[in-house]
Design a protein that fits this description.
Layout: H1 2-27, E1 34-48, E2 51-65, H2 74-85, H3 92-104, H4 107-123, H5 128-145, H6 155-184, E3 188-189, E4 192-194, E5 201-204, H7 209-212, E6 220-224, E7 227-228, H8 234-240, E8 247-253, E9 256-263, E10 266-267, H9 273-299, H10 310-322, H11 325-343, H12 351-364, H13 370-400
Helix pairs in contact: 1-6, 1-10, 1-11, 2-3, 2-5, 3-4, 4-5, 6-9, 6-11, 6-12, 9-11, 10-11
Length: 401
């Protein structure tokens, strides 16, 4: 059950991301053609007002199909209609006319001739697959030559549409963190902070209950009220479970086990929404800085073991659910933030790559050729796949431990 909920949570983050692209595109005058969670083939799809909504069979992401991401080129006609011309040589003439106008830069003329090419396709006797390919080519060319095509829009519109995906994930994380700060404030505490990767005391406030029972830096917390502590999250959970009643700790110090307490924890003051929002923004900044540092270390050949694939993400989310809904929601917020930052890397086909190319095209005053996009995308896809397989190998190794 936990794995199913974890998968739904990951799907929610993808839905939030794609919804950012989708609604921003509509707001600035670009009408998306498709809105999918997952990648084709589609499991379920429905068409409403010219937009196809669907769920893909490959649950590794999602996409919004925005019309005309690239300026149509003569080579596009060959790519779309090359396999079709062998079955219907009579289409060569109309196709060559469209290619000529595209080469001359007469986009309005090419759009006008598309209707003639479409009529020729309808008259031709084509196999089912060839007819489907030809129709897809006509749709792609029509979208690319339309007035709402992405490549025709002003730079600010293109950047807004692409940034809206990761931006919505960041906003989702901030709102979720804010809600969690409000909910978790007022919890019972002892006045300690723990080291990042173990239930070991890092700092003790002398004016709090922890100071009164002589809890010290370096103490490893083994038990709280007789309950075993395995991970950092267990300590605040078990203290909160006391509901303000006295707690007793068993710690390990210098190789010896000591029993400290009992002592009553104190309740933190309840955070207001403005204060919780500020804490959420501060946490978002700290996490962003740490993720950036992790990526920097990865570039320099370090931190390879920190990379995870969707398999590890789902497993980690499932484990967080074992510790309670609140812990899982903290993890979900961190995943949303990580998804946003990963997508902002300046690599095609990631959102950051499209933003970078939109800025370059805005400065140049003209579109970058499709060939350049394809070459840069090939490098980006290779790097993304490399990250995926590194993460997958790490996850398989952890599953085998």
């Amino acid at each position: 059950m936990n794995f199913f909920i974890a998968i739904l949570g990951l799907g929610l983050l993808i839905l939030v991301h794609e919804a950012g692209h989708f609604f921003t595109a509509r707001a600035v005058g670009m009408t998306p053609r498709k809105f999918y969670i997952g990648f084709p083939p589609p499991l379920v799809r429905v068409r409403r007002k010219g937009i196809e909504y669907g769920i893909g069979a490959i649950p590794l992401g999602g996409y919004v199909k925005i019309p005309g991401m690239h300026r149509p080129a003569p080579s596009d006609v060959d790519a779309y209609f090359g396999p079709v011309l062998g079955e219907a040589p009579q289409l060569i003439g109309p196709a060559e006319e469209v290619k000529r106008l595209l080469a001359e830069g007469d986009l309005n003329g090419a759009r006008t001739l598309l209707s003639g090419l479409e009529e020729a396709v309808e008259r031709a006797e084509l196999s089912r697959q060839a007819a489907k390919t030809a129709q897809r080519g006509l749709n792609e060319l029509r979208d690319g030559l339309g007035h709402d095509a992405y490549w025709r829009q002003r730079t600010w519109k293109r950047v807004s549409v692409i940034f809206a995906g990761p931006g919505t994930n960041v906003l989702f994380a901030i709102v979720l963190f804010t809600a969690l700060f409000v909910i978790s404030s007022g919890d019972y505490r002892l006045g300690i902070s723990l080291e990042p990767n173990a239930p070991v005391v890092d700092e003790v406030r002398a004016d709090r209950p922890a100071g009164r029972i002589d809890l010290q830096h370096g103490d490893r917390i083994l038990k709280v009220n007789g309950m075993r502590v395995d991970q950092n999250e267990d300590v605040p959970r078990l203290i909160e479970a006391s509901k303000g009643r006295a707690v007793t700790l068993v710690v390990q110090r210098d190789g010896q086990k000591l029993t400290l307490g009992p002592v009553k924890p104190y309740a933190e003051p309840k955070l207001s929404i403005p204060r919780a929002t500020w804490e959420s923004l501060r946490l978002t900044g700290l996490v962003t800085k740490e993720i950036g540092a992790s990526l920097f270390r990865l570039v320099h050949g370090e931190g390879r073991k920190d990379v995870s694939s969707p398999v590890g993400i789902v497993e980690g989310s499932s484990e967080a659910l074992d510790r309670g809904a609140e812990t899982y929601l903290w993890v979900l917020g961190l995943l949303s933030l990580s998804l946003a930052l990963l997508n902002l890397l300046p690599l095609l086909p990631l959102d950051g790559g499209h933003i970078a190319f939109s800025l370059v095209e805005g400065i140049r005053g003209r579109a970058v050729g499709r060939e350049v996009y394809e070459r840069v995308s090939a490098v980006g896809i290779a790097l993304v796949l490399l990250l995926f397989f590194i993460g997958l190998s790490n996850d398989v190794g952890r599953l085998g431990d």
